[in-house]
Amino acid sequence: MHESFSSALNEMSVADAVMQLASGTVELALEDAPEFARWCWFADVLDSDWGLTGRLPAAGDDVLHELERVAGMCRTSETKALSRDAWRAAYEATERLGHSSAVTSSEATYLALSAANDIALECIDETHPEFTVAIALAFESLAACAADSAVARCWIARALTEWTNRTHPIAGSPRTGEAPPTTDTRQNASIVSAGCSERVLLRVSGNL
Q1: Given phi > 0 = left and psi -120 to 50 = alpha, else beta, which region is 29?
Q2: At what angle do helices 14-23 and 149-167 cross, to 10 degrees?
Q3: pLDDT, tens digit, for every residue of 82-99?
Q4: What contacts 24+ positions apart, CB below 8 Å, involve 83-90?
Q5: 156, 62, 155: which is closest to 110 by C-alpha?
Q6: pTM score, whole prediction
Q7: For position 29, what pLDDT does the model report?
């Protein structure tokens, strides 16, 4: 059994590693970080230059709006708990949109919206959600829209790098137990994972 998702990603295919994460065989060790850091990272997985909105430019405006909406709710949750009714509204909106032909016709889009839907659902039921399934769905979406498996691995590694940077801050940054000022990491595109080039084409219609 692998101890971490990152080691699984290094040792097996992207699809198998994500499956191991979804099944609980490997973990992201999210419980090792303060809650504000988890909320911030969850938000950016949905909505950032390296997250779903940044990797799915071909997704419709309705889908991007819902991803941004749920991400915004996660960012608010860094400092203030939202009501279950608010999360229920987000869940119902993503559920309705998930049945549209524009969403079901694209695997990457459907998986991305499913990740937002699962986050909302878990927040209805749990005070301290873990989002393991939602993160697995998000990683599956990244893999589905990447040009090939190497790009998919690079994109997911970028997300893991973002997580590591937040849980092991560099000197001079806020201590692990302190909530940092609210920021939007869409403005910071400086990190590139493991030497991977970010200048790659998405796998969209007409690009195969």
Answers
A1: left
A2: 50
A3: 999 999 999 999 999 999
A4: 84/123, 84/124, 87/120, 87/121, 87/123, 87/124, 88/120, 88/124, 90/66, 90/116, 90/120
A5: 62
A6: 0.79
A7: 67
Amino acid identity, residue 200? V
Per-residue tokens: 73 = 């709710």
**Residues with Cβ < 8 Å from 60, sequence gap 6 or more?**
102, 103, 109
Q: Which residue has the higher pLDDT, 199 or 142?
A: 142
What residues contact 153, with CB distance under 8 A and at least 6 apart?
A: 9, 14
Structure tokens at 35: 């809650």
pLDDT of 188 > 50? The answer is no
- Give the residue ranges of DSSP H helices in the chain: 5-11, 14-23, 35-46, 52-55, 61-77, 84-97, 101-104, 107-125, 132-145, 149-167
One-letter identity of residue 109: T
State the pLDDT at residue 203: 34
Is the CB of residue 19 less than 8 Å from the CB of residue 161?
Answer: no
